[in-house]
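User: Is it possible to get a 3D structure for a protein together with its bound compound? The compound here is NAP. I've pasted both below.
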Amino acid sequence: MGRLEGKYALITGGTSGIGFETAREFLAEGAAVAITGRSRERLEEAARRLDGRVLPVLSDAGDVPGQAALAARLRQEWPRLDVVMSNAADVTHLPIEQWTEEAFDRLVATNLKGPFFLIKALLPLLSRQASVILVGSVSAFIGHENAAVYGAAKAGLLSLSRGLTYELKDRGVRVNGLSPGPTLTDTFASLGPERQAALYDELRRTVPLHRIGTATELAKAAVYLASDESAYTVGTILRVDGGIGELAY
Ligand SMILES: NC(=O)c1ccc[n+]([C@@H]2O[C@H](COP(=O)([O-])OP(=O)(O)OC[C@H]3O[C@@H](n4cnc5c(N)ncnc54)[C@H](OP(=O)(O)O)[C@@H]3O)[C@@H](O)[C@H]2O)c1
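Assistant: Yes, that's possible. Here is the predicted structure of the complex:
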């Protein structure tokens, strides 16, 4: 029997990278999985590549009123929700001079405000053994070039794992953060091959384990947090980051 047998799980940003690999692991462990993304084409492609009970839903994590629509769609489809993984993110990195108020608001809407209102909208659907997983980043803990706004929003999101656990524990809802370090995904593809290779070289030097993590390693950690195996784990942050968030290199 799978570790998530009979569970209903939502993963925001499930068309690629960590979200996609987590969908694959959740399905293999017996869950039904809804994935979201901003493009119908990418959602359909992801659903085709996944094996099992997949529900692709077009939804922009930065559209705050749209979070209620996502919750309503899940209520139509499923009797309850057991796992929520807030994974979609705006990863814009810029020097302070280049930030506009609009770009700042969009990042905060996607990475902090949207996830908060998604959880609020999902409350009536959450089961009494529900697990909420908030995907943060090592940038919440250490400074990085051009990552001030991204890091601040991720720190806010991870902080919700404590505050919301406190509020929701008596409903049986656990909330935890999952904090990736540098992980091989498409997230840096927009840099182009040369800058991406240089960044990976730099990261291999600075990550204490001297390698970049894989999306599968994050997905396996997500399975643990989603499953009842982690029933005594609440309000904490699981760092899967090769040590970069804690250790000097
Ligand atoms: N990779 C890393 O090194 C790293 C490090 C630290 C933290 N993280 C965090 O890990 C999470 C996953 O990152 P990843 O590396 O797997 O990224 P990725 O491969 O670029 O995947 C991002 C996913 O999120 C979706 N997405 C992006 N913006 C969205 C929005 N506004 N609404 C709905 N879906 C949206 C994308 O789908 P569409 O494009 O189809 O909409 C895609 O499915 C993020 O929270 C990121 O901050 C990653």
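The helical segments are 17-28, 40-49, 66-77, 101-122, 148-168, 193-206, 215-226. The domain at 8-187+214-239 is CATH 3.40.50.720 (Rossmann fold).
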